[in-house]
Amino acid sequence: MTRETVRIAMNGVTGRMGHRQHLVRSILALREQGGLDLGDGTRLWPEPVLVGRREHALRELAEGHGLTHWSTDLDAVLADPAVDIYFDAQVTSAREEAIRKALAAGKHVYTEKPSATSFAAALDLARRARDAGVKHGVVQDKLFLPGLRKLKRLVDCGFFGQILSVRGEFGYWVFEGDWQEAQRPSWNYRAEDGGGIVVDMFPHWEYVLHELFGRVRSVQALAVTHVPQRWDERGKPYGATADDAAYGVFELDGGAVAQINSSWTVRVHRDELVEFQVDGTEGSAVAGLRGCRFQHRAATPKPVWNPDLPATHSFRDQWQEVPDNEEFDNGFKAQWELFLRHVYADAPYHWDLFAGARGVQLAELGLRSSAEGRRIDVPEITL
Q1: pTM of this structure
Q2: Alpha-carbon separation of residue 366 from 170, 216, 354, 370 (angstroms)
Q3: In 3D, which of 162, 144, 366, 357 has the Cα closest to residue 260?
Q4: Are 87 and 110 in contact (CB under 8 A)?
Q5: Which of the residues 29, 173, 297, 356 could staple to 138 if both were Cys, CB 3.0 to 4.6 A apart?
């Protein structure tokens, strides 16, 4: 078997998501398994080139994982003909310029979402990538969660009949940073730095709804800032200018209605940090990060409303678990493998920068809906 080294410029991997999910659990995990077998006698060996602004952090990260290639000079890395792929996990506000440079250098591009801070910019990047003839992709990790893969299994086999509604609950309490350290960086709560839960989560909801249930046709949202003051990484108070909760209603192709609450100001009283309930004429299901429970029409009990008597049964016990039936790898790693196969074996791949632009579009329209207090149609993207 021939081993082919693939150099990947990874920008922003000193951050939590870039480090844990993309570097350690994806690229380094691929190296630990001996590379990626393309099935044609070729095994890809990913060689990350760490890129960032903080020299000390890059050096420490590289040494900690036995890596030798790192740089604070993005332009020099992109000018290196040995680098094939550019990956971006920076803060959103820095992403657009870096991706534009990578495309101009002829690199294949894979990026975290959102791909840009505005729909116009995201669409421009997608068109630039198309015109450059390079391969491009956007991380859409929720599609690879075991719970949602089980849910898609139910959708694909027609279990629900006509899907009527989707209800999603996502979120947890992010500490303000005064008496307990916040779990998320402070820029997430500053609109001027690209923060806000709509910008962060609506791109996720776009691809989840689009892939499983149908294109989003309209959005009506209310974005709010429930906690107006937080404390940054240095312990200094600052005013939160970005939304920390959003309540959205989405009309889908086919007539189904999705309602999704997203919040960093909610305490968890559910089985998982995100849950989706899908109700159809033939059955219902509730999916989380890993599990998925279902109840068929024929097995649906007949509840009777009587507030004067205590319930003598558990509603949860009336549902069945969808079996695993397969081993589920890390979702970020699974999508990395698909993108690498797309680049080096021309395998099909549709989670591209145009798909990423749809997510940015929905976030932008969601914020506009909240500001104007009305439902807004979501037009199809003109490629």
Answers
A1: 0.95
A2: 17, 12, 18, 6
A3: 366
A4: yes
A5: 356
Rg (Cα) of the chain, in Å, rounded? 22
Q: Hey, what amino acid is at 114? A: P
Q: Is 177 exposed, middle or buried (0-12, 13-18, 19+ CB in 10 A)?
A: buried
Q: Which is it for the CA torsion 81, 77, 106, 6, positive or negative?
A: positive
Largest CA distance in the chain: 74
Query: Is the model's pLDDT at 300 over the cut of 80?
Result: yes
Q: How many residues does the chain have?
A: 383
Tell me the average pLDDT across 178-184.
Answer: 94
- How far is 349 from 359, CA to CA, in rounded Å? 17
Q: Are the C-beta atoms of residues 36 and 1 closer than 8 Å to each other? A: no
pLDDT digits (tens, 9 = 90+) for 80-138: 999 999 999 998 889 999 999 999 999 999 999 999 999 999 999 999 999 999 999 99
Handedness of CA 144, 133, 353, 26 (dihedral sign): positive
Q: Which residues of 72-107 are buried (b: 16+ CB within 10 A; e: fewer)?
A: eebeebbeeeebbbbbbbbebebbbebbbbbbebeb
Distance CA 212, CA 357 (A): 18
